[in-house]
Amino acid sequence: MNIADTGDMFVIKFVLLTYRLLGMAPVTISKTQSSKLKFSQSWTGAVYNLSLITGVLTECSRQIPTMLGESSNDETSFSQMYRNVLIVSGNTFLVILLLRFCLCQRKLTEIGNELVEMDRYLDQLPGIYHLRAGRTYVFFVLTLHLTIIITYCALYLAVHPIKPAFFTMIVFPCTVMSFYTLQYSLVVFVIERRFTSLNEALASVETKTVGVNDRSVVSIFVIKRAYARLYRICSEISNFYAPLTVLIVVNLSTSLLYELYKIFFGLTRRSSVLPSPTIKFILGFLWISVRKLPIVLLTSTVRKCHMQMQMTSDVVHKLQDKLGACRDVKSELKNFITDLMHRSFQFTAYGMFRIDCSLLKSIVSTMTTYFVLFIQFQLASDKGASE
């Protein structure tokens, strides 16, 4: 998806509208006289975010005291306390998230405009640089996630009495946080497409510009500059998303643990609320998908991006072997290799943990351990209550 290309405006506007409604895109896009897209700060978006924050705080002041006093025959005091902590922390994280996007409009617009400028810069490579299309993937992923959420809400309403507090205090915060993670993955996907296209352009220098040494040198120089800009953009993206990623990963792990607990005991016990264990399982599976799918997409996309970064060095060395006869080309490639040796980047959450497949492994192992402890604690509580 070429951000500088107005032909991709439908997908861009669809993504922007979705995230603007959720308070995570308080920016506007416009087209300049040269048909160039421009990201700008939006006071309307800032006011909308502040309105959302006010609404969340108002709803919390109304609903949290009531929800804290509720009791259920299907849960113990410990599980109810665990649920209440999740509700309070989830809404707290939601307010922080909305406030951060409201205050960081400038950084958002800078990242967007840097990508636009880089796409324009790469127009200097006609014939060898072709940006891989990604609009279908972006549209599909966003639509799929929306469909899962709508399906969950529809099924929940079909088998439960209508509880507005459930959707405002639980579903909405979790939805926003899942879309935040999904937004992070889509931004990394945009970067990964450019690294892939640059690697292909670099590999095609030999076949498309062989015999034209000056053009080869210029092409390699342009690609090298583009790599430097991409690395800088990656660093800015990682720093922007890092603070809330820490909070969301913590919330994700704890909420998934609670959902697994509900599924397990929903299948092994008869409930006074939902007599059908199958419905409970389907609802639990859909809700876990809402929370888990974005983090899976994020880690897999980051992995692909890292692979493309590492592949660049191999491409440059192969090109050096084939075009080493030209002194100018060889010198430019040598400088490129030196630059790559000094560039080592990882998407992390402030260095606390890496955003890759190892994060998934850590989440699964942690959840498994605490899930077993949770069940043992629950069974012990049931035994004590029966005695």
TrEMBL record:
GO CC term (a single one): plasma membrane
Membrane topology: Multi-pass membrane protein
Residue ranges of the TM segments: 81-103, 137-159, 165-191, 240-261, 281-302
Keywords attached to this entry: Cell membrane, Membrane, Receptor, Transducer, Transmembrane, Transmembrane helix
Record carries keyword Membrane: yes
Entry annotated with the keyword Cell membrane: yes
Subcellular location: Cell membrane
A GO BP entry: sensory perception of taste
Lineage top rank: taxon: Eukaryota
Family note: Belongs to the insect chemoreceptor superfamily. Gustatory receptor (GR) family.
Purpose: Gustatory receptor which mediates acceptance or avoidance behavior, depending on its substrates.
Protein name: Gustatory receptor
Organism per entry: Diachasma alloeum
Lineage of the species this protein comes from: Eukaryota, Metazoa, Ecdysozoa, Arthropoda, Hexapoda
